[in-house]
């Protein structure tokens, strides 16, 4: 076998470049390739739409959860406030009842003391 000289190597390189360029040209003009690229683009667009829809669904779910949480917290706060008011009212009623009871007991004691005094005065007057 003969070793290629510089001219042979250059002509083989040019031939390889031409063949490669021809293959690239044929691939670029191939209608099936254009259809495959179009199908690939459609698949990518459909994937992007699905991703966007999922994100929108997640966002809506997060917003709904946040709204439910806020409503639940507001309801709990209202319940706590109502319970606090009920406790305060019950305590005020108990205090009023206790005050009334103490006043009635004081009046009863006063009446008993007054009756005793009156009895003692009567005894003094009658001399017994």
Describe this structure in words.
The protein is mostly helical. The chain has two helices and no strands.
Overall pLDDT: 92
Gyration radius from CA atoms, angstroms: 52 Å
- Low-pLDDT runs: none
Strand content: under 5%
Q: Class by helix and strand content?
A: mainly alpha
What's the β-strand tally? 0
Amino- and carboxy-terminal Cα gap:
166 Å
Helix content: over 70%
Elements, N to C (H/E): HH
Layout of SSEs?
Blueprint: H1 6-29, H2 31-126
What labels would you give this structure?
mainly alpha, 94% helix
Can you summarize this structure?
The chain has helices at 6-29, 31-126. It has 128 residues and is an all-alpha fold.
């Amino acid at each position: 076998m003969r070793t290629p000289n510089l001219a042979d190597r250059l002509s083989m390189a040019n031939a390889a470049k031409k063949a490669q360029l021809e293959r690239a040209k044929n691939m670029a003009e191939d209608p099936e390739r254009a259809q495959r690229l179009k199908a690939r683009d459609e698949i990518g667009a459909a994937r992007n739409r699905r991703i966007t829809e999922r994100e929108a669904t997640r966002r809506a779910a997060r917003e709904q959860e946040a709204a439910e949480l806020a409503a639940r917290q507001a309801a709990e706060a209202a319940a706590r406030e109502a319970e606090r008011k009920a406790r305060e009212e019950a305590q005020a009623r108990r205090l009023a009842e206790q005050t009334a009871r103490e006043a009635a007991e004081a009046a009863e004691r006063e009446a008993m003391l007054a009756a005793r005094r009156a009895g003692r005065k009567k005894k003094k007057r009658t001399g017994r």
